[in-house]
Write a structure and sequence with these properties.
Layout (H helix, E strand, L loop, with lengths): L11 H25 L20 H7 L3 H8 L4 H8 L3 H7 L5 H10 L11 H9 L13 E3 L4 E3 L1 H7 E2 L6 H7 L3 H4 L2 E4 L2 E7 H13 L3 H57 L3 H5 L3 H8 L12 H15 L11 H23 L5 H7 L3 H5 L2 H8 L7 H38 L15 E3 L20 H4 L13 H13 L17 E3 L3 H10 L9 H7 L3 E3 L9 E4 L1 H9 L5 H5 L7 E3 L2 H11 L2 E8 L5 E2 L1 H10 L12 E7 L3 E4 L7 H8 L3 E3 L3
Parallel strand pairs: 14-15
Antiparallel strand pairs: 1-2, 3-5, 4-5, 6-7, 8-9, 8-10, 9-14, 11-12, 11-13
Helix pairs in contact: 1-5, 12-28, 16-20, 16-22, 23-25
Protein name: F-box domain-containing protein
Pfam families: F-box
């Protein structure tokens, strides 16, 4: 919130007056300089006159606004924009650098989801570190690298003078204080490689300050403060590096969106001229080549005039995809054209779902191949009635797809339920409640040899399992395919292979899916977590929070990997030779449960986001931010893709956390793992 009105603060007239007085001073100084140099000489008039500070009409309008409005505007700017604004005039700099206006920087930082700076650094200095590319040593704007653990920006030349491998200048001080140099002085490695390099200016500050300290208490307090600062920056540096990496990806993605908007407009022009079939049949590689054409790879808007100038080159590129006229085949033409409508109707159905259901619908919901295989859709696509126009077919499909999706889902659930009940009965387990929700119920894939050891497939995630979704249709149509199925297969081949487009229904029968073996292990793991195997659901197991380490695979002297219940299952599954069982009789004997405090520390690290993947709502294509926006622009022709409307974010978190004994505090590998946020030191 802005400070109360009673506080003394700069009036908006003061801001403009500072700039106005500066302009007057500049204009008065110019004639004096000219007279001191004698008479003026004839000069050649340049094409572009230099622009002085006085020619900033937009900035003057901003300075004339009331402060309350300016504060509201500032809180909606990014930290980079605030930093640049503070450098436009003395008035804005004076206002933004007031300590009482730190709330402006905090609001801007929160808008960018940026972590808070440490107490030893101000908000403007923090923004300057992240967003200003000037070298902190020489001030040049050449390529400078942020050395996070220090923290500072240095160019290649300054790194030679500002970093040193030898901290001997304060070795006597460290001996007197009985601490290690690494614990007090910030240090780094170039690109994470090589020897530890110490910050020379900090070495000088420590040496100079130490000489001014007289008594032992002040020296101890000084060492304590320096140690706390070093620990704080070592913890904060990995988070800032990840944030800046994600921020840079977003900037690159925004630039790419501007470049692809011109291509999206060109696709709309082409469709208006009758190139629908060629556009629909273009592969992803050809769409990218189209967007990279010199005439389309521009940020300029595609106006009618610019389209007339570029149309001939674009048409020449598209003509290579126009196939010779094939013999008239009414059945083929009718089915092919309506398959495109089915694809479009499915996109609209997914888009109509609420954002919170988008991930579930695209991963586990009905897909193109499932719909194309239903009798209702096949009958509509083959119907020869003359009154079936394009709009009528789309309307019918929009009404059919929701009920077909529900029916398909219930059929899949019924087949899974029968397999689960048979598996529980064979194991002699009397389950309570919904069997598919139990933690001890999982399925094994038999569709492909490479997945025969996959024992942790659960409902409904089995619906998104690759082996159930990807039919081997590269070499030919499905076995015993009829005329309709062959046309669907040819349609998919012409579109370019997409693993999401076809699903064979027989993949969900008993010969492709069975109850996973190892129910005894799953039951014991649930019991180790303190729950009843006959009633504990997957949600219960995810919420209970217990963490374990295996006493056989690792030793306390080298560190141990911390496992939740799902990692414990995978750990036992990979024990193909029974190594654990040769050493111990029961599964629970080699699993050691962590105390609650250490388990909470492990869960905190596991919640760290390491990577963000984005998924298209219209189809289920997933990739990084730049790729998903390109996909939406070129494949779905969305000029400006929007998060939550056209795509959603899936956060990838740390998959493995390790615990190290305090005896490894000096171990470089353990230290690197802890700095990256993938482990911690503890007595256990």
């Amino acid at each position: 919130m802005p400070p109360p009105a009673k506080k003394a603060r700069l009036d908006h007239r003061d801001i403009s007056n500072v700039l106005h007085n500066d302009q007057i001073a500049n204009t008065k100084a110019q004639p004096q300089q000219a007279t001191s140099q004698g008479p003026r000489r004839a000069v050649v008039r340049t094409k572009h006159q230099p622009v002085g500070r006085q020619s900033r009409p937009k900035l003057r309008k901003l300075e004339q606004m009331p402060l309350d409005i300016l504060y509201e505007i500032f809180q909606h700017l990014s930290p980079r924009d605030l930093l640049n604004l503070a450098r436009t005039s003395k008035g804005f700099r004076a206002e933004l650098m007031l300590r009482s206006n730190a709330f402006l920087w905090k609001a801007s930082r929160a808008l960018a989801e940026l972590p808070a700076p440490p107490e030893c650094m101000s908000e403007p200095a923090f923004a300057n570190l992240l967003f200003c590319n000037h070298c902190h040593g020489c001030g040049k704007t050449s390529q400078s690298q942020i050395l996070w653990p220090i923290p500072a920006r240095y160019c290649r030349d300054c790194r030679q003078s500002k970093l040193s491998i030898d901290p001997s200048v304060i070795s006597g001080i460290m001996s007197e204080a009985a601490v290690r140099v690494e614990d007090v002085v910030l240090h780094t490695r170039i690109n994470g490689k090589g020897a530890e390099l110490f910050h020379v200016p900090e070495l000088d500050v420590i040496g100079t300050t130490w000489e001014t300290l007289q008594d032992i208490d002040t020296k101890r307090q000084f060492i304590k403060e320096r140690t706390e600062t070093a620990v704080l920056w070592n913890e904060l540096a990995p988070r800032l590096a990840r944030w800046l990496r994600d921020y840079q990806r977003l900037l690159d993605a925004d630039k790419d969106v501007l470049l692809k908007k011109r291509c999206v407009a060109a696709l709309a022009k082409l469709r208006a001229e009758g190139w629908d079939n060629e556009i629909d049949m273009m592969t992803w590689g050809n769409l990218v080549r189209l967007s990279n054409l010199k005439q389309l790879a521009s940020k300029a808007e595609l106006t009618d005039k610019s389209w007339r100038d570029t149309r001939s080159e674009v048409i020449q590129f598209m003509s290579r995809f126009r196939r010779p006229s094939a013999p008239v085949n009414e059945y083929r033409d009718r089915v092919r054209s309506r398959l495109r409508l089915l694809d479009r109707a499915l996109w609209d159905y997914r888009r109509s779902k609420r954002p919170e259901n988008a991930e579930y619908e695209t991963e586990c919901g009905i897909r193109f191949g499932d719909l194309a295989a239903t009798r209702e859709v096949q009958a509509l696509l083959e119907d020869q009635s003359s009154d079936l126009t394009r709009d009528v077919i789309l309307t019918r499909l929009e009404h059919m797809i929701p009920s077909l999706a529900d029916t398909w889902f219930e059929q899949c659930k019924s087949s899974h339920l029968s397999i689960a009940q048979a598996g529980l009965e064979a194991a002699g387990v009397a389950a309570v409640g919904e069997p598919l929700n139990l933690a001890i119920v999982s399925f094994q894939c038999l569709a492909e040899p490479r997945c025969r050891m996959e024992l942790n497939l659960r409902w409904p995630q089995t619906l998104s399992h690759d082996c159930f979704r990807d039919a081997n249709l590269v070499d030919g149509p499905p076995p015993r395919a009829n005329k309709y199925e062959e046309e669907v297969w040819k349609y998919l081949q012409e579109l370019g292979w997409d693993h999401a487009k076809w699903t064979i229904r027989r993949r969900f029968q008993a010969d492709a899916l069975k109850f996973a073996k190892g129910i005894e292990d799953r039951s014991q793991i649930v019991s180790l977590c303190g729950l009843d195997p006959t009633t504990a659901t997957v949600q219960d197991m995810n919420n209970q929070g217990a963490r374990f380490v295996c006493s056989i695979c690792s030793s306390p002297e080298t560190g141990r990997v911390i496992c939740d219940w799902t990692r414990m299952l995978r750990h036992e599954k990979t024990d193909e030779n029974g190594f654990h069982r040769q050493r111990k009789d029961a599964l629970g004997n080699h699993w050691v449960r962590l105390p609650d405090q250490l388990a909470a520390q492990a869960r905190s690290l596991e919640s760290t986001v390491t990577w963000k993947e984005y998924t298209c709502i219209w189809c289920h294509h997933s990739t990084e931010i730049t790729g998903i926006r390109q996909h939406l622009q070129l494949r779905h022709e969305k000029a400006e893709p929007k998060l939550g409307v056209d795509y959603y974010c899936c956060e990838q978190r740390i998959r493995e956390v390790s615990i190290y004994p305090e005896s490894l505090l000096q171990d470089p590998e353990a230290q690197a793992t802890v700095r990256e946020g993938r482990g911690f030191f503890a007595r256990f």
